[in-house]
Amino acid sequence: MNPVVPVPATSKPRHRWLHPINLAFVPGQMTALSEEVVEGLLQNARLQGHQVQAIPDDSTDVILTTTAFGEPLNWRQALMFSSRRRFKLRRTPAVYTMLHADPTEFERLLDHFQVALSKEPPDPSDFDYPGLAPTAYQTLIEQGRRGGPILSLERLLQTQAKCIRILLLVGDERPQAVYHFDLVGAYPRSEADDLAAFYDDIILRIATTVSTDEVTRHQVVDKPISHSVWQGLSTPKAMTTAARQLGERNFFTKMVRIADLVHVPSVGDAVAEQYSEGCFSTWDPDLGALIATITGSARPVKKSDISEDDLAVIVGVRPDAKGALVREVEGKQNSPPSSEALEMIDMDTVLPTAILEDDWDSEDEPTVDGALGANVPVARSKLHGHRGIHAFHPDYVEFVPLYPQYYHYIVSCATGAQAQGIKEAFARSGALQDPDDPRQVVFTVLPGHGTVVAEKWVPGKVPFEIIWEFMDAGYLQVDNRIPQGPMAYAPDPDGLMVLEPAPTTV
């Protein structure tokens, strides 16, 4: 067993808002190595000031459990579904499940998926594993072709373990690394070269995740927008056009549906039945509001083919910053906006505004009454997607990095921490702060998650047109792979800034 080790001094910057958490360990199937690593984690958690509980109660933030690698767990035993009933809890804590894979077995599975994903057409039998629904192969193929073999493996293990947050321990007699899997498909690694730093890193990653709060408590305000006013706007039509244009360029990833992976009676409040492929929004100068796509958690939404019923109107940020302020529209379906709604509206609070001149409109988008001379956010349109950016042209596009701690300890989607990180990054944009800066597109990268792109107001262009034109011109090169940690761009001979390979990607 591992001795108690002091928390090591680390050069990795940590988030200021971290707070102590309550963690309970509920053992499942274990190997000798997973038992050793769990003990080391619990010791480290105590040293970091967290409370380790004997059994979960209503104050528990995290339940850590274990199960066998590659063996399906019955949903009735899975703590993500059963912890409330088993321990008589009023809410479901975050559940982390540790699986132990021998290095040879781990590499064999990755090699298998690498070969299987290269077949054309793919063979469904290559993705036939115990515990999966008959349709699961479709998701494993789509995810693997988007993110590589590691993503196919991630979805397989999440499905078999009936748990979203997986700690995949790789090692034989001693740990080599732990991979951190989550809902959107992140897979950063904690290396075990230094055991003290190894345990410190894992606990810090867990504490980072549960120290954040979701900001999806959107609130309806004011009276509904009249049907006649809505019908007179050009922005809703522009959003449906942008959806098709971005879809033709394969920007949106396919929605992941739980029912396609595994059959359980009800996912209930454990996890949404599906999660979205991203979101986008643009400012309507006549309404003085942001028109955004709705959340895919409420009902399936194909972001490349939306209707006006798939749009929501965002007018501000709740005073307590727990979500966005929303206005409904008469005569259409009104679903909540995307879970990233707050991040899209909140970044405007730290950015300058622009005045629309008489040449801003295009032939395809006639000027709305009252738009000329309007004071509008400098960022016209915003695009959030589960994609990476491989390269960009610095004469046309600006990259604004997050603060360093976000690359070492990634935060969850739809949280206040993510919204704050994005807001701080875009606040430092030279292109958005300076009206005379010629760069018209600005982006940041969310490690383990995706990218956020914003465009400025350009005369004669419809919403998102600059973004998709820059994609076509190669000024903004979208990639399937997303950095999982620290990243950097370096110049190439063609004048582009190209993403350097990072040791934390697979």
Summarize the structure.
The chain has 506 residues and is of the alpha+beta class.
What does this 3D model show about the protein?
- It is a single chain.
- β11 and β12 (289-293) form a beta hairpin.
- The strands form five sheets. A nine-stranded mixed β-sheet has the order 8-14-13-12-11-17-21-20-19, with helices on both faces. It has a seven-stranded mixed β-sheet with strand order 2-1-3-4-5-6-7, with helices on both faces.
- Helix content is 28%, strand content 22%.
- The longest helix has 16 residues, at 32-47.
- The protein is built from 14 helices and 24 strands.
- It starts with 21 loop residues before the first strand and ends in a 7-residue tail after the last strand.
- By secondary structure, the chain is of the alpha+beta class.
- The radius of gyration is 23 Å and the shape is globular.
- The chain has two domains: 22-210, no CATH class; 219-499, Class II aldolase/adducin N-terminal domain (L-fuculose-1-phosphate Aldolase), CATH 3.40.225.10.
Shape: globular
- Summarize the biggest pleated sheet: 9 strands, mixed
CATH topology of the largest domain: L-fuculose-1-phosphate Aldolase
CATH top level assignment of the largest domain: Alpha Beta
Helix content: 25-40%
- Report strand order across the widest sheet: 8-14-13-12-11-17-21-20-19
- What Rg, in angstroms, do the CA atoms define? 23 Å
Number of strands: 24
- What's the CATH architecture of the largest domain? 3-Layer(aba) Sandwich
Structure classification: alpha+beta
Instruction: Count up the helices.
Output: 14
Poorly predicted ranges: 1-9, 362-370
The residue-averaged pLDDT reads 91
Task: Report the span from N to C terminus.
Answer: 30 Å
- What is the CATH superfamily label of the largest domain? Class II aldolase/adducin N-terminal domain
> Proportion of β residues?
15-25%
Number of domains: 2
